Amino acid sequence: MLEEFAPSLYIADGPAVAFYGFPYPTRMAVARLSDGSAFVWSPVALTEALAGAVEAIGPVGHIVAPNKLHHLFLGAWAERWPEARLYAPPGLARKRPELRFDAELDDAPDPAWAADIDQVIFRGSFAMEEVAFFHRASRTAIVCDLVQRHPEAEMTGWRGMLMRLDGLVGAHGSTPREWRASFLRRGPARAARDTVLGWQAERLLIAHGDCAESNATAILADALAWI
Questions:
Q1: Number of helices and strands in the chain (H, E)
Q2: 125 Cβ partners below 8 Å, 6+ apart?
Q3: CA 118 vs CA 7, 28, 59: distances in Å
Q4: Distance of CA 140 to the CA centre of its chain
Q5: Which pLDDT score is estimated for 14?
Q6: Which stretches of 29-156 are DSSP H helices?
Q7: Tell me, what's the pLDDT at 20?
Q8: β-bridge partners, 60
Q9: Strands (E), 89-216
Q10: Is residue 62 helix, strand or coil?
């Protein structure tokens, strides 16, 4: 279920979920931190096989949602590992009041993973803000809905046409157009983009579409040029 994406960084693809009539692929990441614990990003549907693979990396210490759309499976993961800390991005704690969040993510990484992972929030949208991460050891930028790069061969029919109009198909990728329009204040988003480009990432790990094992900074600069 888990594949090594880079040293101490693993990915797993989950089942597609429906989003406004679109079947969206899902992907999660797990990083092994310096203290041996597992940092779980955007968890997908939990199965016994996946749980065993994650526990083989290390005890689950942190479960993180990068934005307020990626919350469907948090409850199952928090129930399976009640000793783990659960982290909400801006806006999610209000959306899911039944979940017990231990902290809300900010621009500064939690001390528990600060030595291994950096982060920044893309602010300025009235609809949704997202937390981007940088896995230092593998020089991997980790973004969720902010950059989508769907394979050409899979984007057919009217769905493919709409995705192409949004610039979400192919090697360049972009941010969904309706979300772009919600950033009424571009200054904070530009500052976050500059932070991400300053990471000089080599690899790019995304939730929707093709990841990249090289040239990540150039891909990000192109995909986020709208900001």
A1: 7, 11
A2: 179, 182, 183, 184, 189
A3: 16, 17, 21
A4: 12
A5: 84
A6: 48-57, 74-80, 92-95
A7: 55
A8: 38
A9: 103-104, 117-122, 130-135, 140-143, 203-206
A10: strand
pLDDT less than 70: residues of the chain? 18-23, 150-170
CB atoms closer than 10 angstroms to residue 24: 16
| Residues 6+ away with beta carbon under 8 Å from 117 | 31, 33, 39, 109, 133, 134, 135, 136
Decide: 192 and 128 in contact? Cβ < 8 Å: no
The angle at the Cα of 194, spanning 6 to 191, to the nearest 5 degrees, equals: 130
C-alpha closest to that of 40 among 69, 66, 5? 66
Residue 66 · residue 104 · CB < 8 Å: no
36: left (phi over 0), alpha (psi -120 to 50) or beta: left
pLDDT score recorded for residue 109:
97
Rounded Cα gap, residues 138 and 134, in angstroms: 9
DSSP reduced 3-state for 221:
helix
> What domains appear along the chain, each with residue ranges and CATH number?
3-223 (3.60.15.10)
Number of residues assigned to the chain: 227
Stated pTM of the model? 0.91
| Strand-strand pairing, 22-32 and 3-6 | unpaired
Q: Which residues make beta-bridge pairs with 30?
A: 10, 40
Note the pLDDT of residue 4: 97
Which pLDDT score, from 0 to 100, does residue 171 have? 73
Tokens of 224: 């986020």
